[in-house]
Design a protein that fits this description.
mainly alpha; rod-shaped; 0% strand; 82 residues
């Protein structure tokens, strides 16, 4: 909330002064939202690139899948040949 108030105060201050042309100042909130969206996408991308691999967990998951297939086969469900 404090950050929003600070950004709003800066924006209103820029509107009152003539440091930045008035036509550009009205677009600052849109630029800010676009910048936040780009930052969010960047953080998701970095998180995906650094996603840790867990070979031990993958083995456990594969075992659980095999157990589930065997359980379903005993119940008469066709689970395919995989």
């Amino acid at each position: 909330m404090v950050l929003l108030v600070a950004i709003s105060a800066c924006w209103i201050g820029l509107l009152q002064t003539s440091i930045i042309p008035r036509s550009h100042t009205w677009l600052l909130p849109i630029y800010f939202i676009i910048s936040l969206g780009c930052y969010g996408l960047l953080m998701v991308g970095v998180g995906l690139m650094n996603f840790p691999t867990c070979p031990q967990e993958a083995l456990l998951l594969h075992q659980d899948i095999d157990e589930a297939k065997e359980f379903l086969k005993r119940r008469g469900v066709d689970v395919g040949s995989d």
